[in-house]
């Protein structure tokens, strides 16, 4: 059977190799829509950050192994500051350990922009420095190479 060319070209599991290296980072930025506000003050639930971690972990696995992978566990989750509707967040995954099939990552949500309603209905500002809102460590698994 011939390996899938797309998988081979990216070093995915079809080629029997991985490109996973400690220190690799994947980062996403997104606007938090008001439709995700669940609580007073337009607060967004913590599950929003966890879903974002799943998204960056998926991209990491695609880049390193040519497969979306599956989230196996979190060993730590810390909610450090609120995420609000109207925020612009930056979500990152950093590869900290590479096993045969497991990939351990550190995750972080940073609020890089926030609405400033006291200045006007659509006013907003860039936060410098960004506010670290959520951190976690998690493990994903990928299919065996071969």
From TrEMBL:
<dbReference type="InterPro" id="IPR033120">
    <property type="entry name" value="HOTDOG_ACOT"/>
</dbReference>
<protein>
    <recommendedName>
        <fullName>HotDog ACOT-type domain-containing protein</fullName>
    </recommendedName>
</protein>
<dbReference type="Pfam" id="PF03061">
    <property type="entry name" value="4HBT"/>
</dbReference>
<dbReference type="InterPro" id="IPR029069">
    <property type="entry name" value="HotDog_dom_sf"/>
</dbReference>
<feature type="compositionally biased region" description="Low complexity">
    <location>
        <begin position="1"/>
        <end position="10"/>
    </location>
</feature>
<feature type="domain" description="HotDog ACOT-type">
    <location>
        <begin position="21"/>
        <end position="146"/>
    </location>
</feature>
<dbReference type="InterPro" id="IPR006683">
    <property type="entry name" value="Thioestr_dom"/>
</dbReference>
<feature type="region of interest" description="Disordered">
    <location>
        <begin position="1"/>
        <end position="21"/>
    </location>
</feature>
<keyword id="KW-0378">Hydrolase</keyword>
């Amino acid at each position: 059977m011939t390996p899938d060319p797309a998988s081979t070209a990216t070093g995915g599991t079809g080629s029997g190799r991985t490109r996973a290296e400690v220190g690799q980072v994947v980062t996403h930025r997104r606007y938090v829509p008001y439709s995700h506000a669940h609580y007073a003050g337009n607060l967004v639930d913590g599950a929003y950050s966890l879903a974002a971690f799943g998204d960056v972990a998926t991209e990491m696995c695609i880049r390193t192994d040519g497969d979306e992978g599956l989230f196996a566990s979190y060993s730590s989750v810390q909610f450090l500051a609120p995420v609000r509707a109207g925020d612009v967040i930056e979500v990152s995954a950093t590869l900290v350990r590479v096993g045969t099939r497991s990939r351990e990552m550190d995750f972080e949500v940073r609020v890089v922009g926030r609405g400033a309603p006291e200045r006007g209905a659509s006013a907003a500002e860039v936060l410098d420095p960004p506010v670290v809102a959520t951190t976690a460590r998690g493990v994903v698994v990928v299919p065996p190479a071969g």
